[in-house]
User: Which sequence fits this backbone?
């Protein structure tokens, strides 16, 4: 009797498991999916990779498509809704559907290019514009070595109204304003922490600016814009010494290298006490970069929707190529420039407070990279890690 009961329990468990993992064969005769609604996405993915992302590059179209996911999704403000009745629908495709309105918002400068390039692919895809924008971003990122495979959902309704202006943060906004904008956008779904804001800014590891300094379009934010690595988090901590172009542009501050542009917002988020330790913690921590970005991106892409109402088609996204190298100090000539002119050298800033969990696990990663380049103007010597730790502990060394 006991044996019979046990076998019934086992059969039920197996049946339940089969129900969870049952897959449908897609009409293409090649793929299977957990939800039949995802089947059509395999062909859209392959067309995007081949014809839109140049056969699988992590290039300009990928970068612009990722930027577009953000500019569409962040178009939601419960605070504006209280005053005006409608504060935007989040990831609802409004930026493309109401292109003539939203691309005139200052923060969306230049985004019309990728909207126009995507349009024929949206039309051919049979997807809603809202779903397509987020899907194209995730497919694009899967071309970038080191990236996580991002989650994708379908089932979003397209916008019937444009998002209001001022929902997209600007590079000249203060950290206060940026953090509160994200908090507002996510306020109906539990808010968004400063750590999650830093996590979303991992996106700037595969990014460039066309419109901050129009004399040098396509200037990247780090020295490896085709790789989803932590180099951005290294280089944004280096001391800024040069404008790569004309300088004096709104939203730009000095960068550490020619050929690289630093946004004022990235510079300030790298140094603000609410975000600096999280920023430093990404250096050479690829598992964290991947998991933190993936989680924050997922939340962003369903803004304005209830995730439970959407269909999870994440299985359609291919695993990105692995990363082959660690973050490093920029090219050799810069090391030598640092040695020759230590006053202009790189200093890890700002400092994490000793005694916090960040001091050991995060700042030490930065110190390992920079120990021989840190110049102490008081002692006129290059500091060792031990000496740095003492100075940090006594709070004597502030930059
Ligand atoms: C504090 C928030 C943010 C600010 C102030 C900001 C600002 C900017 C600016 C000014 C540019 C250069 C645009 C140009 O001149 O062409 C840019 C590029 C970019 N941003 Fe952001 N951004 C923020 C957050 C994000 C987020 C959350 C994502 C994605 C999840 C993102 C993805 C990108 C990408 C991929 C590019 C490069 C586009 C390209 O190479 O054409 N950004 N961002």
Assistant:
């Amino acid at each position: 009797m006991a044996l019979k009961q046990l076998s019934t329990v086992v059969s039920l468990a197996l049946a339940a498991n089969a129900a969870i993992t049952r897959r449908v064969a897609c009409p293409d005769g090649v793929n299977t999916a957990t939800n039949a609604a995802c089947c059509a996405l395999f062909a859209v993915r392959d067309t995007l990779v081949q014809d839109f992302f140049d056969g699988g590059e992590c290039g300009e179209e990928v970068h612009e498509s990722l930027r577009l996911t953000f500019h569409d999704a962040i178009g939601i403000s419960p605070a504006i809704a209280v005053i005006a009745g409608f504060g935007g629908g989040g990831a609802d495709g409004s930026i493309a559907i109401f292109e003539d309105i939203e691309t005139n918002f200052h923060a969306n400068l230049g985004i019309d290019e990728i909207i126009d390039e995507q349009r024929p692919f949206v039309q051919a895809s049979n997807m809603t514009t809202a779903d397509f924008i987020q899907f194209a971003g995730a497919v694009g990122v899967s071309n970038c070595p080191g990236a996580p495979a991002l989650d994708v959902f379908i089932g979003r309704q397209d916008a019937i109204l444009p998002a209001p202006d001022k929902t997209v943060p600007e590079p000249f906004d203060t950290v206060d304003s940026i953090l509160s904008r994200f908090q507002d956008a996510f306020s109906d779904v539990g808010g968004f922490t400063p750590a999650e804001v830093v996590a979303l800014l991992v996106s700037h590891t595969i990014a460039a600016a066309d419109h901050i300094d129009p004399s040098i379009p396509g200037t990247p934010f780090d020295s490896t814009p085709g790789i989803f690595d932590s180099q951005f988090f290294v280089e944004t901590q280096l001391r800024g010494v040069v404008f790569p172009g004309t300088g004096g542009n709104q939203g730009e501050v000095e960068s550490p290298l020619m050929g690289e542009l630093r946004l004022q917002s990235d510079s300030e988020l790298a140094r603000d006490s609410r975000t600096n330790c999280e920023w430093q913690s990404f250096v050479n921590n690829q598992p964290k970069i991947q998991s933190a970005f993936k989680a924050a991106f997922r939340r962003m892409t369903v803004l304005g929707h209830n995730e439970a109402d959407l269909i999870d088609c994440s299985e359609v996204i291919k695993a990105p190529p692995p990363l082959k190298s660690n973050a490093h100090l920029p090219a050799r000539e810069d090391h030598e420039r640092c040695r020759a002119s230590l006053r202009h050298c790189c200093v890890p800033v700002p400092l994490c407070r000793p005694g916090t969990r960040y001091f050991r696990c995060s700042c030490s990663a930065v110190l390992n990279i920079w120990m021989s380049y840190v110049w102490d103007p008081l002692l006129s010597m290059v500091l060792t890690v031990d000496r740095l730790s003492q100075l940090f502990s006594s709070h004597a060394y502030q930059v």
